[in-house]
Design a protein that fits this description.
273 residues, alpha/beta, binds hypoxanthine
Length: 273
């Protein structure tokens, strides 16, 4: 079910009464990247649980609150904790957070995720600016009756990952101390990590990183005309690339290890957005 416009308004009205200012930029933090929230100045938090019609995150290491505050002088709202289809949410429900942020007035959206490295030139700890994505399985978050107030039934996705924002991120990558690539994110629904054969197929199909999030937020943003800047943090090489088994611990450890540099890089980008 895609809910009517008023459904999202209920959540947005509740938040609007409690937020300290109208935010300019929305940020979604991925697995293991929660510590980035520490860079938010003068934070004001709203628990997801208190927001009517909102979702509750169940994923490990996802906290579950909206944080309003300033980063590099910009007014931001950060989703610390995101929602995934593997938690049992329908794809249509996963449109809720971005639509609510849109109603709060954000002008652009930054998405981050922890992802497996499929491209053999990548290493754990690398960052990838997402230029495009591939989602061959799972429904669209825009499935169901179109909510015309947000956007048209059929919509373009060729500029979904905003070229100007990507150019800014590339420019600022140079002295970030991080290895920053640009490439294609391949969505897999999880919660199991992929099989080595799936990863070989994804590589042939053109995926550079693989993960279980991001695409439904990006598609929802494209529908309502919000420019997106998205990043994968390569937390591990994807299944079968090394002899090692994949673990959540490795994902979170790499996320935490790069969080400080990544957060400094994000702060510089946000300052120039
Ligand atoms: N696959 C899918 N999702 C992930 C991975 C992975 O290898 N690493 C972090 N999130």
């Amino acid at each position: 079910m895609n809910e009517p416009f008023e459904f999202y308004k209920v959540s947005a009205d509740y938040i609007a009464e409690r937020m300290p200012f109208q935010p300019e930029i929305g940020i979604v933090l991925g697995s293991g990247l929660g510590p980035m929230a520490a860079s938010i100045e003068q934070p004001v938090e709203i628990d997801y649980r208190d927001i009517p019609n909102f979702l509750v995150s169940t994923a490990p290491d996802h906290v579950g609150k909206l944080i309003f505050g300033r980063i590099s002088g910009k007014k931001v709202v950060c989703m610390s904790g995101r929602f995934h289809s593997y938690e049992g949410y329908d794809f249509e429900q996963l449109s809720i957070p971005v639509r609510v942020l849109k109603l709060l007035g954000i002008r652009s959206l930054i998405l981050t995720n922890a992802a497996g490295g499929v491209n053999l030139d990548f290493r754990p700890g690398d960052i990838m600016i997402i230029s495009d994505h591939i989602k061959l399985n799972g429904a669209s978050p825009l499935r169901g009756k179109n909510v015309d107030e947000f956007g048209p039934r059929f919509f373009d996705t060729t500029r979904m990952y905003d070229p100007e924002l990507r150019a800014l991120a590339k420019k600022l990558a140079e002295d970030s101390g991080l290895r920053v690539h640009e490439g294609v994110y391949f969505f897999m629904p999880g919660p199991q990590f992929e099989t080595p054969a799936e990863i070989r197929a994804i590589r042939i199909l053109g995926g550079d990183t693989v993960g279980m999030s991001t695409v439904k937020e990006a598609l929802t943003a494209a529908h309502c005309g919000l420019p997106v800047l998205a990043f994968s943090v390569v937390t591990n090489m994807a299944a079968g690339v090394t002899q090692n088994a994949l673990t959540t611990e490795e994902v979170n450890e790499t996320g935490h290890a790069v969080a400080e540099k990544f957060s400094a890089y994000m702060q510089r980008i946000i300052g120039e957005m």
